[in-house]
Design brief:
Layout (H helix, E strand, L loop, with lengths): L1 H24 L8 H22 L2 H4 L7 H10 L17 H26 L1 H21 L5 H5 L2 E5 L7 H8 L5 H13 L2 H28 L6 H6 L1 E6 L5 E2 L2 H12 L1
Amino acid sequence: MKKVIFRMLAYLVDIIVLGLFLTFVTPNIPLFKSKEILAVNESYTAVGQEYVELNNKYDEILEDNIISEEEYNDLKEKYPNLASSLESLVGSETTKEKVSYAILDKAKDFARETDYKSNKLSLNRYILELIATILYFGVLQFVLKGQTLGKKLLRLFVVNENDEVPDLKIFLVRSLFTSTIVISLIHSILAIVLTYKDYVSIYKYITALSSFYIIFMFGIVVLRDDCRGLHDMILKTRVKLMNKDNTEYKTLEFKEKNDEKDND
């Protein structure tokens, strides 16, 4: 468990370092359309605020179980993004559940639209992130002999099956597995080549793929005794944890397996 925790903490440090670098770099380069992306995200933040406020007004809206024309017009003025979802309910007896579902569906539509617009604007930024990821987790890790800044902080090393520093090409390929940037890049390309309608039709599959990738990649590390991820097994690498006395930390299972090999 100690090795898993150290590995996760090292990854967190690395993501923060890389994220801080990109945060300072991308807003200052017009090519990355940071202002346009910020405007899209701010509009969605406004929708989120409307959703929260409307959820707190259900009892007031449905005091007599009917949304009147006057009440509807007032809601449209105060909540221009979400109140239009209630138009079909105006003038007829309704329930809190119907109102809730109508507003929620509208909010989900805005989420998909925001994702589409943001990804459509983000291709250049994702390409930069991909390059930065390869340089950090690939080139830098090779130069530092199997360590990133996070791994160095927590005494972790990437080695091959011979307990040696892998070749540069191994680190370059390995870097593509260490974040979801490749999936983000695919999102962006799909948003550019597909119409909004087509993008929406595959939205849930894209989202599911992203979630599955994260759970699967990190889940294997947690479940395996040797803490090897799928990328470690494919590339024949492992991450070793060193004690303060410069000896390798080994789990009980790891020790038992190696003792069996020695006895053979």
